[in-house]
Design a protein that fits this description.
The protein is an alpha/beta fold and about 375 residues long. The protein has 12 helices and 4 strands, in the order E-E-H-E-H-E-H-H-H-H-H-H-H-H-H-H. The mean pLDDT is about 85.
Amino acid sequence: MKNDKRHLATLQIEGSLLRCSGSWTVSQMSRLELWLKQMLLPEGRLRIDLSEVRQMDTGGAWVLQRLLLTLERRQQAVDIRGLSAEASDLLELVRSTAITPESVPRLRHSGVIEDLGRGSLESARYSLGLLAFVGEIAGIWLGQLFHPARIRWREMVHELGEAGYKALGIVGLLSFLLGVVIAYQGGMQLRQYAASLFVADLVGLSMVRELAPLITAIIVAGRSGSAYTAQIGTMQVTEEVDALRSMGIAPMELLVLPKLLALIIALPLLTVFADIMGVLGGMVMASVQLDVGFSAYIDRLSTAVNVNSYLVGIGKAPVFAAIIALLGCYQGFQVVGSAESVGRRTTLSVVQSIMAVIVIDAAFSVAFSYFGI
């Protein structure tokens, strides 16, 4: 069936009169846009006659509104006649809801003072939230001390296996290689002074006091801390945490406290294992590179490393474990929205945990030096 030409939207210039006819609908918008682009509008006062427009919808009203905005920007007076009541209502609707260049919000660049204030406020909110989180955990832990039946032993044992037993391989390998590197780099210098035997002092003290607890904490922060954030964050996104609350189960008691207690137990044990593997790596390198026998190395090690030095390294581990577990779980509860937030919070938890561990380790070193430990 042929199209009725009377329904085609047309525009015609007759002096200062713009005559509009046909159907001004969505189907005719491309045709109207083409007419307006090719048409040369006269200067001066313009009269628009819409009496021959058979039909108009919001698409046609939008084209007419664009024409009026163009004439308004040219500061050209316009008279509209022949506009039906229905078309007038549509034009008013389009005019009231249309987006103009003036209504688009401009990008505002904040100043240095404003950025500093926003950053300080965000840091304060984060610190207060973390402090409240720690307080809530402490309250739940004290409650379990008075009611041991509430302790979730099964979850704790599971987390102990995840954070402790399954981390033995990577901790042992990296500690062994670290001992090899220290023995090689330090032994090459000591051999110049015929003091190769003192490589046992170098490896033993550095591993036991500083490097073993530090490297173990960093590995656990990247391995277990990130897993805590990802697990709790995913449960936040899927609303499983809200489901636990609706069932009367405290998420802190089920999700956080077993992880915290398990890591406080696991990290010192991993540190002991790292001590052994680091010393073993140094012993192997000393035997191969410096011709220091195993028996001589062990005898010198027993003289250089005393119980005090050993306990200094072990004593740091529970503090590191508490920091890693608390930061990892807290960031997990801060996840909102989507999986993208899970990834961002997981990255934040690892970065913050490693930074906190290094800063606290430095504080320990200063304190031990001050007290002569």
